Queue: 3 jobs
Job 1
Amino acid sequence: MPSALALASTGRRRFLRGAAAAPLVCLGRPAAVRATEYASASEVLDTIDRREVEVAGRLAAIARAIAGAQAFADSVASDQAGHRPDRDKLRHRLKLPASSAPAPPPPDLSLAALREAQQELVHAHAEGLPALGDAGAVAVLARHLVDASRQLTVIDLWIEAEELRA
């Protein structure tokens, strides 16, 4: 009889095989796939700055309105506070102008709007990597991408939990 560890490992392998094939299933819907072609590292960093401000504004508004959301908002704010100086250092090293990020938009209290803003932040990181033209900058933003992706996963789980409660 196989051990529980062997069964779990087999289940993971089966899941990973299915996940690896999943992009092939999406080939029938090319209109749903849109990527931004960034012209410069400055454009990438400005977009990330704008998206991060948008996420922060939406999440802060949600945290003020929903009990229990403050811990997640604080965690995201902490990550963002660490990312900003990293991007500032990249701008300085790459001789780019300071950020031109605008003020946050009026907050939308929906989790769907937060998810959309966070997804756009993740996309800005991922799609912007080729435009950086600097291995060190790619390494920094790739680490930030991991944080943003983790936060997107938490938001997805939060939405799923809310749907189950409804």
Job 2
Amino acid sequence: MLAMTSPWLDSVTPVGPPSSANPSVRFLMYAAAVTGGWAGLLCLAVYLIGRMAGVPFEVTRVGDASLQVMPWLVVLLLPVVAAVLGGLLASLVRGNRHAGRMVFWGGTVAVVASCWLPLTEAADVLWSTRILLLLMHAITWFLVVPQLARIVGDSEPGASVERAN
């Protein structure tokens, strides 16, 4: 059996891109905005379906103990903002060893930490609201974190293929 020693075998994609195609900050911001936008649209769909099913989506604001209905615009834009911030943070580790793993696990830790907010809401917040908020966190993680990790992973040393021209 032949042992393969091709430089793209360590890439997250089947065939590594040329080093000239290493992800730029602009490309990461574009990917973050697109994945965050899709996550926002799916979270908005969950929100609207939940509202039609009678889930009140009443939460407390920081520094205010009264319950207020979460606006639909927040549900739409918060995943985009989180994805763009994640893309900016991911750009800091471009080109490092294990950059893809750092982004994946860092993003996963950030999402798990943000899940603490719905779980620690006031006792007046219904569990149906909390569960759907946690579902929105999962949707955003699923669409944003692995994609940013894959993109940043292609900038790792040895992941790029030098073209012989």
Job 3
Amino acid sequence: MNNANNLIRYTKFATLIFIALVITADVFGFVITNYITRVWADRTDTFALVMLSVVFYLGTIGAYAVLISLFRLLSNMSRDIVFDKANTRLMKIIAIACALMGLDCFIGTIAWFGSVYCGVICVFMTFIILCVRAVFEKAIQMKSELDLTI
């Protein structure tokens, strides 16, 4: 049990670091998107810069939703609240945010085709999270059935 608690603690700490990284990315977003537009996408038009900036900032909104929900999920687990409806709701928020970030990245291919890779990763993560959520829902159902038999 101690290893699980340590893993949860380290993951919560890593989540806080990622939140700080997203905040930093928000602060320097225009510089980042300018670099991506000019160097990676090899575009100099204003449309590409604006499009990738919008995609970038919409993506960071999704990242906040994912990271805050993950932190809340880990906090529940550290309090031994594991197979609970609240956790499946948090997983649903994470899955929806990942799906929307994937859509956001796919829209970004209008300005730079390289964003399709991020979109594919987001969609793949959505499916993984939905599978884990289904396992949690099944465990909750089995737990409630077991509680009724006692």
